[in-house]
Amino acid sequence: MIMPLNKLVHAVGISAVLMYGSVCDVGISLAQDSLPVTTQSAVMALAAKQCPTDLSSLQPKMNKALQFIKSASFRKAMLTSLEASIPEAIFQSDGLAQQITFLMEEIARQEQERAHAEKVAREGLTDPSQPLKPCRHRKESAFCYAMDQYLVSIASNLANKNFLSALQCYQREGVR
Q1: How far is it, in rounded angstroms, from Cα 12 to Cα 58?
Q2: For residue 106, what is the DSSP state?
Q3: How much is the mean pLDDT over the chain?
């Protein structure tokens, strides 16, 4: 796996200071700062035994949610995201609490988009109480566009809600 550039620069920078720094306080300060990272790694390893490490178990539900979405790139991105490492995503985030807050906001935003798209799609039906049905892939209309947005929001929130649940599990297990 390739280390992100900012982490590589950070790691190289700390090594250079520890090796060549002449001020003892800098070395002590950096050593004390690295201790929680080691502890956090141990907490993460223990949490990974209790919490999902990816969302691959969601694949059958996601395949069903994606089957009528027109965008092949969206379908591919969603399926690929199910294989992404949750612990790695936590390590790369700016903090678990902030990630959870962001995800909760994103779920609410997607739900608003889903409700709006559903409303627009129902306006295009002769009987708004009938079930929504996906359009044929080549058909273009306001109804089809609204249906696609509706389905994208459902698939997005399927992944988002499961990812949120996983992050909350890691939080309960002590990961910060």
Answers
A1: 38
A2: H
A3: 81
